[in-house]
Amino acid sequence: PAPPPGRHFFSDPAEVEALRGSLLGWYDRCKRDLPWRTLAVMEPDADRRGYAVWVSEIMLQQTQVATVIDYYNRWMQKWPTLQALAQASLEEVNELWAGLGYYSRGKRLQEAARKVVSELAGRMPRTAEDLQKLLPGVGRYTAGAIASISYGQATGVVDGNVIRVLCRLRCIGADSSSPAVIDQLWDMANVLVDRSRPGDFNQALMELGATVCVPKAPLCGECPVKQHCQAWRKKLFGNPPKVPDVEDCGVGDCPLCPPATEPWDSSLGVTNFPRKAAKKPPRAMRTATCVLERRGCHRAPEYLIVQRPSSGLLAGLWEFPSLPLAQDLQEEREREELADHLQAWMGRPVAAKGLQFIGEVIHIFSHIHQTYVVYSLPLDGDVTLDPALSPSRWVTEDEFHASAVSTAMKKV
To answer: Which residues are identified as catalytic?
Structure first.
């Protein structure tokens, strides 16, 4: 469909073609050497190519590239195909994923791999529409990335990097997290995507946002498409009389312009864009955690870990016995509640005064500011655990670090 009128959109075919050429030329010269890109180019089998890109995209959600590389290489070495992943246990998946965060991503990835093997004859869907419809955990962005990079479908992608680049290119100053603006950005991405090299173009657009058009202190001087960037022009030239103001886009009360209450701040330059609604502060939570220690065989210390429920935060991971606390509890009451909780595990009384306070550990999840109040309790003799409770086991320190435990528990 023809793009809507107005200065926010790419309505000039010649400009679109020039932008594509500049961006792809820059990408060919400057792209980072990343393992999933190598596999996407070198792997001749379409399903394995799609799988390689899929794993990288799931890992890269909410996680920086530098962190992902080592996890990705270990994952692909352990499970080089969909079929190999489908045969793995969730415990194995959680163990390898430990430290990447957002653990439901790994769980859904394995569930989707099993579905491809059992219901789709081992064949990956080839279009963004089918990928999103048939694979659990694959949203619009991931589907577009897999389809364009692995299968050459001319479909755009919109992630955080692309949002930033497009909002600056076209001075889109409305709330970039709103559904209406996101829909417009998807329309824009689908207009821009290069028809002959869609996967490279989408990666180039994301690469630009990750390395040049960064949130703070963008490298505008190195940008290959700055001549097409309205925010850069506005910073450089202001609003000369012969050039219409970008906010005078000819459609009246424009839903993409910055609010009248938030005028252009010349000190911010291109970082006036994108604009986001203020984030809600993370909610504060307190949890009492007890490290139970006993002497195992050869007198080596062992620690009790228990498995979290199969749904919710940190689903299926292992942790030291823990108990959510009310925010305003006094330390004495915290000890009593934790002692009662531990008594249920061990089937024998636990004296609150026997719990040794070690300190507090703070861990920030995306939406939770979590404080772990850490206690220690050395045990004499053996302890029989109630099999009716959640799965539990005694582990050495090395076994603990090899288990599917969260980064927060490693801090504890």
So the answer is: 57
Asked if omega into 274 is within 30° of 0 (cis), the reply is yes
- Name the amino acid, one letter, at 282: P
Give CA–CA dist 376/196, Å, rounded: 62
Tell me how far apart the alpha carbons of residues 99 and 88 are, in angstroms, rounded to a whole number: 19
Cα 350 from Cα 335, distance rounded (Å): 10
Residue-range domain boundaries for the chain = 13-272, 283-402
pLDDT band at 22 (very low <50, low <70, confident <90, very high): very high
Contact 60, 68 (CB under 8 A): yes
- CA 91 – CA 73 distance, rounded (Å): 19
Rounded Cα distance between 345 and 304, Å, is: 10
Q: What is the pTM of this model?
A: 0.78
- In contact, 141 and 148? CB cutoff 8 Å: no
Distance, CA of 218 to CA of 7 (rounded, Å): 23
CA distance 106 to 93: 7
| CA-based radius of gyration for the chain | 26
Residues near 9 by beta carbon (within 8 Å), at least 6 away in sequence: 3, 170, 188, 191
What are 318-377's pLDDT values in tens digits? 999 999 999 888 888 999 999 998 887 777 788 888 899 999 999 988 789 999 999 999
Place of tokens 């939406």: 367
Task: Please count the other Cβ atoms lying within 10 Å of the Cβ belonging to residue 18.
Answer: 14
What is the dotted CATH code of the domain comprising 283-402?
Answer: 3.90.79.10
Question: For the chain, how many residues are written?
Answer: 412
Distance CA(55)–CA(36), nearest Å, equals 9
| Tokens 């490290």, residue located | 291
Give strand pairing partners of 368.
Answer: 283
Question: What is the fold of 13-272?
Answer: Endonuclease III; domain 1 (1.10.340)
Burial 320-340 (b: 16+ CB within 10 A, else e): bbbbebeeeeeeeebbbbbbe
Amino acid at 70: D
Q: Tokens in use for 103?
A: 């653990």
Contact between residue 373 and residue 352 where contact means Cβ atoms under 8 Å apart: no
pLDDT tens-digit readout, 81-136: 999 999 999 889 999 998 888 888 999 999 999 999 999 999 999 999 999 999 98
